[in-house]
Design brief:
mainly alpha, 65 residues
């Protein structure tokens, strides 16, 4: 009987620990965007690189003048 009570208490403690870890993960933003990562590989990075190069070039031109 004593071992049954100990096992019940242990399972309740583990359950609460799992629940608090889940709440922590939700609050820290782990589940904010679950869909975006699988489509990220399809994005074209060339456009972003071109924009960065253009912005850097404009900054350099402003510094020179």
């Amino acid at each position: 009987m004593t071992s049954l009570i100990a096992l019940i208490l242990l399972s309740l403690c583990l359950g609460f620990a799992a629940w608090f870890l889940f709440l922590w993960a939700v609050k820290s933003g782990q589940y904010d965007d679950a869909e975006r990562p699988k489509y990220r590989m399809l994005d074209d990075d060339d456009e972003e690189k071109d924009e960065k190069e253009k912005n850097e070039k404009e900054k350099n031109d402003k510094k020179k003048s």
